[in-house]
Design brief:
It is a single chain. The chain is built from six helices and five strands. By secondary structure, it is α/β, with parallel strands linked by helices. It has one domain: HUPs (Rossmann fold), CATH 3.40.50.620. A five-stranded parallel beta sheet has the order 3-2-1-4-5, with helices on both faces. The chain starts with a strand and ends with a helix. Bound molecules: adenosine-5'-diphosphate.
Length: 160
């Protein structure tokens, strides 16, 4: 059984994230998109909002579930019988950190493999931070985020 976890902040979900979700759901039997609750980072969208947005955009994919976790990714993976960690790679700048994380996770749990999926070149520049920066300045983000969650994302910046 190929049961994968796709972890991240998803603060908020972008078209780049959704592209990785779609592509991994085609090759894995089950994909859990897991929102990381990181006590060191103050998110813009709280955990419930991030999970809700992910649930909306992954609705069409029957083998994709959404969850959240606190603590070590490897612990969550072991508890849930997950054997693959999926990561997206945009640029060399992602590589260095992800390389280190993959090696640490391999050390902690040799049976769990990290698989890297290259970004779709349409989204290689796209990150949650870019979305927030543009939305915060009143710019148009509809080409950057899934249409189903566009209004939820924008609401944060319109005081609604
Ligand atoms: P970010 O805030 O940089 O978007 P996340 O922690 O939410 O980061 O990212 C979760 C995962 O999704 C990471 O593996 C990251 O490399 C990947 N990812 C984020 N944006 C993209 C993109 N545009 N294309 C491919 N992978 C991406």
């Amino acid at each position: 059984m190929t049961k994968a976890i796709y972890p991240g902040s998803f603060d908020p979900v972008t078209k780049g994230h959704l592209d990785i979700i779609k592509r991994s759901s085609k090759i894995m039997e089950q994909v859990i998109v897991a929102v990381l609750e990181n006590p060191r980072k103050i998110p813009t969208y709280d955990i419930e909002e991030r999970v809700k947005m992910l649930k909306i955009v992954t609705e069409p994919y029957r083998n994709v579930q959404v969850d959240y976790y606190q603590g070590l990714l490897i612990d969550y993976a072991q508890k849930n019988n997950i054997n693959i960690i999926v990561k997206g790679l945009r640029a060399m700048s992602d590589f260095e950190f992800e390389f280190q994380m993959a090696l640490v996770n391999q050390k902690l749990s040799p049976t769990i493999e990290t698989l890297f999926m290259m970004t779709n070149n349409k989204y290689s520049y796209l990150s949650s931070s870019i979305v927030k920066e543009i939305a915060g300045l009143g710019g148009e983000i509809s080409s950057l985020v899934p249409p189903e969650v566009h209004d939820i994302i924008i609401a944060k910046y319109r005081g609604q």
